[in-house]
Amino acid sequence: MKSRFLAGLLGLYLEGPMPYRKHREKKYETKYREAFKVFQEEIGITFSDEKLLIQAFTHSSYVNEHRKKPHEDNERLEFLGDAVLELTVSQYLFQKYPTMSEGELTKLRAAIVCEPSLVRFANELSFGSLVLLGKGEEMTGGRERPALLADVFEAFIGALYLDQGLETVWGFLKEIVYPKINEGAFSHVMDYKSQLQELIQRDGSGNIEYQILQEKGPAHNREFVSRVTLNNVALGLGSGKSKKEAEQQAAAEALKKLKEQL
Predict the structure, then answer these.
(1) Exposure pattern of 172-190 as b/e (b: 16+ CB <10 Å)?
(2) Res 178: pLDDT
(3) Residue 209 neighbours by CB distance under 10 Å
(4) Enzyme catalytic residues
(5) What percent of the chain has pLDDT over 70?
(6) What is the rounded average pLDDT of the residues 235-256?
(7) Tell me, what DSSP letter sits at residue 100?
(8) SS (H, E, C) 183-211
(9) Residue 27 within any structural domain of the chain
(10) Are residues 38 and 150 in the same domain?
(11) Which residues are part of a known binding site for Mg(2+)?
């Protein structure tokens, strides 16, 4: 679902004498409506109420400069989207990791919905190129500002929820967010190896070892398969794009087995 938007597609300044300015405004509106049409085609979702979609990408600076028109900024949608995102991600993690503790789930969810992660999701779809900004915000680089992009992503989720409900939101996140969880993008807060080591030490001494069993695929898309053993007894297998990720997945499988035995 990679976007092909040109960053400057909406970058028109509304300056000049009044008749010329009105002409530029009309041209500007035509441009962003075309951009939103392309965007919907690319994500495979068509909004019933396009005003919600446009509002999700409307920054307060744009509204302040267009007071004579009935524009609404995205702040209320951002508020709603934040809650919807937490709910859907929480449900996904709850179902995917049945043995993970409340504390671990909370830590993982926080990593997924934090600002840097939301910016990554927004950039993947070139959200910055669609944002309606005031001239001042545009000139100071607002289109690339992390906080702004994170807010827009949340606002989009809020708009999508209002327009089409949780099922469509879930489908969208299944394409953009959930695969990154499965790929180990947040493994830095899912330190299964440390958890496994702690569990073994708590229940008695033992020697944990990790072994790379297989490396496959081309250099740019390598996949590793790892096995973890306790006193030479296999506990789990795991695969990943790196040795570290494969070992983490092997440790995760070992943890699941050991916890089931407790």
Answers:
(1) bbeebbbeebeebbbbeeb
(2) 95
(3) 10
(4) 82, 154
(5) 83
(6) 93
(7) -
(8) CCCCHHHCCHHHHHHHHHHHHCCCCEEEE
(9) yes
(10) yes
(11) 78, 151, 154
Please say which residue of 182, 214, 232 terminates a domain.
182
The sign of the torsion formed by the CA atoms of 195, 200, 205, 208 equals negative
Q: What DSSP element (H or E) covers 232?
A: none
Q: Work out the pLDDT band at 197, boundaries 50, 70, 90.
A: confident
Which residues lie closer than 8 Å to 131 by C-beta, 6 or more apart?
10, 57, 58, 59, 142, 143, 148, 152
Give the CATH number for residue 46: 1.10.1520.10
Number of Cα atoms under 13 Å in the Cβ half of residue 181: 21
Range(s) of the domain holding residue 64: 18-182
Asked if 63 contacts 73 with a C-beta cutoff of 8 angstroms, the reply is yes
Provide the mean pLDDT of the chain. 85
Does 1 have pLDDT greater than 60?
Answer: no
Contact 239, 223 (CB under 8 A): yes
pLDDT of residue 254 exceeding 50: yes
Per-residue model confidence as pLDDT tens digits over 39-66: 999 999 999 999 999 999 999 999 888 7
* Single-letter code of the amino acid located at 128: G
Task: State how far the alpha carbon of 132 is from the alpha carbons of 111, 128, 159, 226, in Å.
Answer: 28, 9, 16, 48
Has residue 8 been placed in a domain?
no
